[in-house]
TrEMBL record:
The lineage of its organism: Bacteria, Katanobacteria. This is AAA+ ATPase domain-containing protein. One of its GO terms (molecular function) is serine-type endopeptidase activity. SMART domains: AAA. Residues 144-288 form the AAA+ ATPase domain. GO terms for biological process: protein quality control for misfolded or incompletely synthesized proteins. It comes from candidate division WWE3 bacterium CG06_land_8_20_14_3_00_42_16. PANTHER family: LON PROTEASE, LON PROTEASE HOMOLOG, MITOCHONDRIAL.
């Protein structure tokens, strides 16, 4: 390669670097970011010019570009409008859940409070924001609401109830699985100076939601790893406290993020593994177990039609007589939730689907005489 070719390649590399820096700077300038953060990023991009031609340039450029991409993807000021129509909320709750009227009534009361605050002009959109010298936003009147925490045994609808609340309010729904979480950095993120640094699950889910006011479910907060329980409870305390979550700091982001408009919902099997300070921020709602009569209705109205659709069967191809359901709901004894019932119905549909594909029949009717043939064998 002669000197002219080397010179041409060098000029091309320089043009690529200049174009990349200009694109990075334009992305920051056009981003809907807090003013202080935008200034920081512009200064950081300008510093990259000083590293051009050094060995550290590529590494620092990659790090800066990744950070800019993350920051610009956060919905700093983008919120979805709330639907606080109680009639619609009541219809959605009844559509997705049978019974548990006490729980539904408390949720409707919770939404009523939010509606009244919105009517009285106390919505987050109208809150006055005061910026201090340390760039920590302090709301003159934060949009406070109690944090609902559903308590109950597995399979009784805690997660699906949180999803129904999001559907009723017309908000995006995101979920963080806390079961087995072994480090607080999974929630808060890891600082950019450390290897394998990345934002925490809170920031990731806010980005995934696309709005700053989603419904965020912290699922199974009582089942975090014992070795990290104290640290994780400290992060939860900051997330769930309205005096603190308006300036939540993710270690990777390294800038206060306003989470005061996020509707946090928690779930747990029991409260034994939850710190008292966190419990003080929660409104505990006990999810009752389902009776056999309720399970029969749930199986007939909700689970069976759903499994027919999922398995590709029609109502003509598979029918279950009413007097058979008492055996279907208790193949292994009492179960507080409906997951065992759901698996049993899946098993029945699977056996019927196999018989149809094998050419052993076109329509099947489950009766007292043949139910044992179709129930799954454990």
């Amino acid at each position: 390669m002669n000197q002219e070719d080397r010179s041409n390649i060098s000029n091309q590399d320089e043009e690529i670097r200049d174009r990349s820096l200009k694109m990075l700077k334009a992305k920051v300038e056009m981003g809907d970011l807090p003013l202080e953060l935008k200034e920081r990023l512009l200064i950081r991009v300008e510093r990259l010019n000083l590293l051009v031609g050094t060995n550290a340039y590529l590494t620092d450029f990659e790090s800066t570009a990744s950070y800019v991409d993350l920051v610009c993807s956060i919905p700093w000021n983008k919120r979805s409008p709330d639907n606080l129509d109680l009639n619609i909320a009541h219809q959605i709750l009844d559509k997705n859940h049978y019974g548990i009227d006490i729980v539904k009534d408390r949720i409707l009361e919770h939404l009523s409070i939010l509606s009244l605050r919105r009517r009285n002009g106390r919505s987050p959109e109208k809150s006055e924001v005061v910026k201090t010298k340390t760039f920590v936003p302090v709301k003159a009147e934060s949009f406070r609401a109690s944090v609902l925490c559903f308590v109950g045994l597995p399979g009784i609808g805690k997660t699906s109830m949180a999803h129904s609340i999001a559907e009723a309010m017309d908000r995006r729904f995101v979920r963080i699985a806390m079961g087995g979480m072994g480090s607080a950095s999974q929630l808060r993120g890891r600082a950019r100076g450390f290897p394998a640094s990345e934002p925490g699950m809170v920031v990731k889910n806010i980005i995934r939601a696309g709005y700053k006011n989603p419904v965020l479910l912290l699922d199974e907060i009582d089942r975090v790893a014992d070795s990290a329980r104290a640290e994780i409870m400290g992060v939860l305390l900051e997330l769930l406290d309205p005096e603190q979550n308006m300036a939540f700091t993710d270690y990777y982001l390294d800038f206060p993020l306003d989470l005061s408009e996020v509707m946090f919902i928690c779930s747990c099997n029991n409260t034994g593994g939850i710190a008292n300070a966190v419990l003080d921020r929660l409104e505990l709602i006990q999810m009752p177990s389902y009776t056999d009569e309720e399970k029969i209705v749930i199986g007939v109205r909700y689970l069976f039609p759903k499994e027919l659709k999922h398995s590709g069967l029609t109502e003509d191809e598979l029918q279950i007589e009413d007097d058979v359901w008492s055996q279907i709901i208790r193949p292994l004894g009492f179960d507080a939730g409906v997951r065992t019932l759901d698996r049993t119905i899946q098993g029945v549909c699977g056996k019927v689907a196999r018989k149809i594909v094998m050419g052993e029949g076109k329509t099947f009717r489950i009766t007292q005489d043949n139910v044992a043939e179709f129930l799954p064998q454990w």
